[in-house]
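S., here's the first fold you wanted:
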Amino acid sequence: MDDAIRLNPLYKERVWGGRKLESIFNRQLPNELDLIGESWDIVDREGDQSLVIDGEMQGKTLNELWVDHKELIFGLDLPQMERFPLLVKILDAREKLSLQVHPPESITSELGAEPKTEMWYIAEAEPEAEIYCGLSHEITPDAFMENVNVGLSDDMLHKIKVIKGDFIFIPSGRLHAIGGGVVIFEIQQNSDTTYRVHDWGRTGSDGNSRELHINEALRSIDFQDVRPCKGRMENNFLVRCPYFEVEQLNLSPTESINASIDENFAIISVIEGALSFGRCDFRRGDSFIVPAQSGTEPLSLISNGLTKLLRTTIPKKN
């Protein structure tokens, strides 16, 4: 294959969401949804499937691509999993999200859960915007629980001011919350297990308090995770972990680069500017799949101005 695989976004209403994806990324959001917190742009879940918009695979689900055309589209030496291992989202946090944690892989079988490691790239941030990430100081689980029971004093939480262009790694086990006034690209393991610790006294769309998962959260939180730092780019890489690798590339006008760094697939997310790939043009906020390129001439991304992009891959097993 020598063209982009474009997928339809799936929009998720959230009590903390808004409509910024319209103004920032020029998205046409569904009118029947009010507060849209998440756009799931590349997803292969049982109840949520990306569909190919056009081309020779038009109408196929991401799962069909992964199961039936894995080597052709994604390449070789990739994880043997029933579903595509990554999920790519854009989040619009009009208000701050719940304080939460995702379970580490070591206990997921006991909890009947899925592990989830993720990274956040800050696409937009209002002045004084912040995220909650890790603990401000060492604390025992019992002391933490006592604090939660009396309403949660957030001085035990590590707060980080963020601006556009910042990024941070969120391994499973790290206590976290996105603050209000932040729009992020999120790249994560294909998981939807989240344990809420605290929801700031908020109610859901039905007027009731949203469910908390205190026992599961206490088993999942890494209580040694104190004052983690924002990420630092090294040789263009923002994150390199066993589940995904993410680069940031800055392109000059008309600059052309190889679409992937090896013969396997890549996910391209345009974070600033615009670019062309094959017969398609892409703008800020778009994500698409570059198919595997084994045995072909390298395919190129061509910048249509000053362009920043994220390039996400899965490390080969070998």
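And the second, which I think is the more interesting of the pair:
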Amino acid sequence: MTLRAIIIGAAAGGGLPQWNCAAANSRAAWDDHRAPRATQSALAVTVDGDAWALVNASPDLRGQVLATPELQPRPATEAGLRNSPIKSVLLTNGDIDHVAGLLTLREGHTFDLFATPAIHAVLDANPIFEALARDRVARRPAALDAPFALLPGLTATLYAAPGKVPLYMEGETVETGIEGEQTVGVALSDGRRTLHYIPGCARMTPALAERLGGAAAVLFDGTVFHDDEMARAGVGTKTGARMGHMAMAGPEGSLAAFEGLDVGRKVYVHINNTNPVWDPRSPERARVEAAGWEVAFDGMEIVP
């Protein structure tokens, strides 16, 4: 069995184009259907092509299933006419763009829902998620650094990635480099090769760099190219750091952080609609590609 991943959503929260945005990338997507478009961040993984797991449940999940034949119901199974190859869902944090899609999965389908105890507590505190009947959807706590079977033949290991609490849980003081159960990366392994998925990361730490060394593939937070990108685009004042995401550029950015790391394939995911790398003709896109990075797109397949 071989690990196979499909990036079913390459964009950060809001997608591309964002519904209420006319900044450069969104405007191009509205005006020209040949310009890049992308749905909100999520990954689908399998080892046998039959059973699939989702890593994060995007608000765009229904459209992502429509666009991905592998995730669609089979014509006839022992389960009857209502069935799905989605057997489990794993959450890397409690952000709206990663949990809202759970409500799309409320029609009585049986699956396992994995998350850290802290993120399960967030879901437990919100009664809307009781739409996922607990006799159908098993809420399974996953401890950090403790491997578990996400699917038969596919092992997942969660680990802390610097980040912050979800936007809707922020108080007056916001910590953006918390290391614990609120924001995690995940190592996915079929026993031979390992793929890391880290859609949110506030900074590179020595421990994280050591963990990623030797990975066959790393799908990493590409939210913004410049830390002050929102201001540059004229659509906001929050920096990437304030949102809990490290920029690509700069001395503390991911391009610099990955220099010298032994990683087979490097792919930017969770890309904000303001990020200039969406434009394949941009100097920023040329720079990331020259550094050996790929820019994710909806439907991109990764076989480590």
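Why I say that: The chain has a mean pLDDT of 95. The longest strand covers residues 154-160.

Talk tomorrow,
H.
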